[in-house]
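Quick question, first post here. What does this chain look like in 3D?
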Amino acid sequence: MVKEPKSAADYLQGTRQLGFDELLEAHRSGATACPLPRKADSVRTARDVTRSTLRGWGLAELSDDAALVVSELVTNAVRYALCSSAQGESAPITLVLLHLSPHVLLAVTDPSDEVPTPKEPDFVSEHGRGLYIVETYSQRWGWDHLNRGGKAVWALFNGRR
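> Answer (accepted):
Ran it through. Tokens below.
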């Protein structure tokens, strides 16, 4: 009998039961974590790590969409981390990639407790389209508070196309 693959909701439920704090600490195969400084050039680093990790997992076909989404998530994290005095200057932004076959979960943590709120996209303005892009290119997205303070904003991708 062929086992039915888990749905995205099943993976998200499992992630919530374990918690992002534990996932960030876990050293497991199919997981990559990359601390990023609170600087604009962290966006490029995050894209590069995402592309190389997905290639390593044999999921290069997700690279363009995932890199675009990671760019938006890290841009927001840098902006809010710079505005946040919540955990001092030392709390990093962290990019986490989890291969939960057939899904890939990308998460970006930051020290801000501010809830990500989608705005009506203004296609003329340079701002306000980030979460619209995340929603458009990922299968599902959301956020979770971290026990240590701050949040993880995540996006889920299906490795099967």
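Residues 59 and 159 are 7 Å apart (CA to CA).
The chain has five helices and five strands.
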